[in-house]
């Protein structure tokens, strides 16, 4: 048995960080049908990829029955073949990054004079066909390769994430044939099996899930819980515990692993949510398998998902993984060890160089963060000043509006006062006219009374004179006032 951890430490890449945040946001927030509507099918992606190559590689797709297909990369005339099952939570089709990664593996293997082709399985997604349809199709794909005449010793099976789950299921099926799936008769063990970041259990109770589950962007927790629901419901109805969740299988479940494959590679990240399940499965496999070498490859940073490593740094994309697969294609564990020893120094130099680049990028990133924080503070201060100014302007505007309102009220009051003053003037004028009329009337009345008095007196005196009753006495002069104010005198 062997266990090998080639890397340790932490790497950082802003581009990888942005990708992880994108995946962590898009996958959990969209329904399965929305994601499948956005993404092209595995067959469509494969066809586009083959036609995009400068060599204009042939599009070779073969139906293997049960609704599944095998798509070929590289000539079928190659003696050795890799049988690849893609990941995607059983609900997403293949990405072109998977195909680029596979082609990169072929290029790396050719540097060691190893030529192999890849048969990519297109299986039915879980929301279109229940379990164990996927195991049936995976088994049918391997059976198809055997029927094509490929020697089991020249076949390597590999898969990532849910595809790694299918690799573990296929190994379980070879050792313990599933009652609903036709058994696979190998004759002799496969060259090897690679389970890369395998989704080996649907539970999230391990310490690694508790520690790293929320930051493992290539396996978004909420999306995995939603996707695993379909398979968990199937598990309850079928009781296929160890097929569906290889991490729950006891050690003796893998006792016949040596009859299924010569080598098993499991990859796991130091801070990956699934790392505990992967490590535990590796230990169970190597504890009971006498005829199969089990390797565990540890990678730095959050995850070792091979697709992510390829997309952002092909030169360092799971280098040991590609060498391991190349060695499995050669069916020689000793050759693997020689390759690892021979290139360990080169890896160390590359790693140091990469760490320097990462350190430089980290410093630049930290500087950009500080600059951003300064700019943010400056912006916040400017915003506060603007808000204060706006508040002052608002207060001034309010005061202006209040003043305008008061002026309007004052103008209205002035107008009303003027109207009232005019009315009073009119009333006073009318009152004065009345007084004048009254005064004239009084004068006329007084003159009339005086005339009457004078007339009465004159008549009285005349009557006295006429009757002779008036005695002789001193002469009296009587003065009266006429209407014009002239004096009238008479002598008795």
From TrEMBL:
<feature type="region of interest" description="Disordered">
    <location>
        <begin position="464"/>
        <end position="492"/>
    </location>
</feature>
<dbReference type="InterPro" id="IPR050300">
    <property type="entry name" value="GDXG_lipolytic_enzyme"/>
</dbReference>
<keyword id="KW-0175">Coiled coil</keyword>
<keyword id="KW-0378">Hydrolase</keyword>
<feature type="coiled-coil region">
    <location>
        <begin position="337"/>
        <end position="427"/>
    </location>
</feature>
<dbReference type="Pfam" id="PF07859">
    <property type="entry name" value="Abhydrolase_3"/>
</dbReference>
<protein>
    <recommendedName>
        <fullName>Alpha/beta hydrolase fold-3 domain-containing protein</fullName>
    </recommendedName>
</protein>
<dbReference type="InterPro" id="IPR029058">
    <property type="entry name" value="AB_hydrolase_fold"/>
</dbReference>
<feature type="compositionally biased region" description="Polar residues">
    <location>
        <begin position="476"/>
        <end position="492"/>
    </location>
</feature>
<dbReference type="InterPro" id="IPR013094">
    <property type="entry name" value="AB_hydrolase_3"/>
</dbReference>
<dbReference type="GO" id="GO:0016787">
    <property type="term" value="F:hydrolase activity"/>
</dbReference>
<feature type="domain" description="Alpha/beta hydrolase fold-3">
    <location>
        <begin position="83"/>
        <end position="288"/>
    </location>
</feature>
């Amino acid at each position: 048995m062997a266990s090998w951890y080639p890397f340790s430490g932490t790497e950082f890449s802003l581009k990888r960080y942005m990708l992880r945040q994108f995946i962590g946001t898009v996958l959990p927030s969209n329904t399965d049908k929305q994601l499948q509507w956005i993404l092209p099918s595995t067959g469509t992606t494969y066809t586009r990829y083959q036609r995009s190559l400068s060599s204009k590689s042939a599009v070779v797709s073969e139906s293997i029955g049960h609704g599944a297909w095998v798509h070929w990369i590289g000539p079928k005339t190659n003696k050795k073949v890799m049988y690849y099952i893609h990941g995607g939570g059983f609900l997403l089709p293949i990405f072109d990054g998977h195909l680029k990664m596979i082609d990169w593996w072929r290029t790396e293997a050719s540097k060691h004079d190893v030529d192999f082709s890849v048969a990519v399985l297109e299986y039915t997604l879980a929301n279109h066909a229940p379990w164990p349809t996927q195991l049936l199709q995976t088994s049918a794909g391997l059976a198809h390769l055997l029927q094509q005449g490929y020697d089991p010793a020249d076949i390597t099976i590999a898969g990532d994430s849910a595809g790694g789950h299918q690799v573990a299921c296929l190994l379980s099926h070879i050792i313990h044939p599933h009652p609903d799936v036709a058994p696979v008769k190998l004759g002799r063990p496969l060259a090897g099996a690679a389970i890369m970041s395998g989704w080996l259990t649907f539970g999230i109770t391990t310490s690694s899930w508790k520690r790293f589950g929320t930051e493992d962007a290539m396996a978004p927790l909420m999306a995995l819980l939603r996707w695993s629901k379909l398979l968990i419901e199937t598990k309850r109805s079928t009781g296929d515990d160890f097929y569906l969740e290889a991490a729950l299988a006891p050690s003796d479940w893998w006792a016949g692993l040596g009859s299924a494959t010569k080598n098993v590679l499991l990859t796991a990240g130091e801070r990956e949510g699934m790392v505990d399940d992967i490590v535990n499965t590796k230990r169970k496999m190597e504890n009971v398998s006498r005829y199969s070498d089990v390797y565990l490859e540890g990678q730095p940073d959050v995850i070792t998902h091979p697709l992510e490593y390829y997309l952002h740094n092909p030169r360092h994309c799971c280098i040991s993984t590609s060498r391991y697969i190349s060695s499995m294609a050669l069916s020689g564990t000793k050759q693997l060890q020689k390759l690892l020893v021979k290139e360990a120094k080169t890896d160390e130099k590359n790693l140091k160089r990469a760490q320097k680049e990462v350190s430089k990028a980290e410093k630049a990133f930290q500087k950009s963060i500080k600059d951003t924080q300064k700019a943010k503070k400056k912006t916040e201060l400017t915003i506060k000043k603007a808000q204060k100014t706006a508040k002052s302007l608002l207060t001034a505007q309010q005061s202006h509006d209040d003043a305008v309102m008061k002026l309007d009220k004052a103008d209205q009051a002035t107008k009303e006062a003027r109207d009232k003053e005019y009315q009073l003037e009119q009333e006073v004028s009318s009152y004065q006219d009345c007084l004048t009329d009254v005064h004239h009337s009084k004068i006329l009345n007084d003159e009339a009374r005086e005339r009457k008095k004078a007339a009465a007196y004159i008549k009285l005196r005349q009557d006295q004179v006429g009757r002779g009753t008036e005695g002789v006495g001193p002469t009296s002069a009587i003065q009266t006032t006429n209407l014009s104010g002239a004096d009238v005198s008479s002598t008795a």
